[in-house]
Amino acid sequence: MKHYEKAFYQISGHSRGWSFSANDFITVYTRDRIDEQLKYLAKIGKIRRICRGIYDYPKYSELLKQYLSPDIDQVAYAYSRKFNWRIEISGESALNLLGLSTQVPGRYLYLSDGPNRSYDIMGTILEFKKSVLKDIGFKHKESSLIVQALKALGKERISENIIAQIRSKIDAKLFKTILKDTSTSTGWIYDAIKQICQED
């Protein structure tokens, strides 16, 4: 197997939409080698370079006959791994990612224990704002996404429709994991999560 085929095999082991940097392969390859392979894989169209140092394994739409825009949440976590930051999505951005906001966002905000940074991801601005992350303690990004969205909505706005909308955006395979991960959340938030993650 050629070296670039081995690298692509590892990339394609993740679902489409995954974003990554050379740092995600640093325990397997030398930095020069993985940089060279990622550059080549992007050149032949196996992966896509979406900004400096960040790539994705893009989703393809058969209907539109084109690759879809990068998954901003995946890009944010690629940066967090690259720079060893802890991050937390902001409430408004969580609502956008879950389809609960009618606004078309041109900007996504994540709180971070790293420096203030802003990146242009193929026309969408991804911003990291330095913050004290007191409440961050979730192991899974989906847990953070749901909790921040619920907080942004507030208890009074939680309805069966909201529950159903969030539920439709989350992989059912993660329900048990999310329930365990968020068990220390505020009472009304955890009650809503239990409804979101209930088994059919």
Structural class by helix and strand composition: alpha+beta
Quick one: overall form? globular
The number of E-state strands comes to 9
Name the poorly predicted regions: none
The structural domain count equals 2
Write down the Rg: 18 Å
So what's the oligomer here? single chain
Helix content: 40-55%
The end-to-end span amounts to 44 Å
Average per-residue pLDDT, rounded, comes to 91
Strand order of the largest sheet: 6-7-9-8
Report the β-strand fraction as a percent range. 15-25%
Order of helices and strands: HEHEEEEHEHEEEHHHH
Largest sheet: 4 strands, mixed
Number of H/I helices: 8
Summarize the structure.
The chain has 200 residues and is α+β, with helices and mostly antiparallel strands. It has helices spanning 3-12, 31-43, 72-83, 91-97, 141-153, 160-169, 175-181, 187-196; strands at 19-20, 48-51, 54-56, 60-61, 66-67, 87-89, 107-112, 117-121, 124-130.
Label this structure with key terms.
single chain, 200 residues, alpha+beta, Arc Repressor Mutant, subunit A, 4-stranded mixed β-sheet, 3-stranded antiparallel β-sheet, 9 strands
Write the layout of secondary structure elements.
Layout (H helix, E strand, L loop, with lengths): L2 H10 L6 E2 L10 H13 L4 E4 L2 E3 L3 E2 L4 E2 L4 H12 L3 E3 L1 H7 L9 E6 L4 E5 L2 E7 L10 H13 L6 H10 L5 H7 L5 H10 L4
Parallel strand pairs: 7-9
Antiparallel strand pairs: 1-3, 2-3, 4-5, 6-7, 8-9
Helix pairs in contact: 1-2, 4-5, 6-8
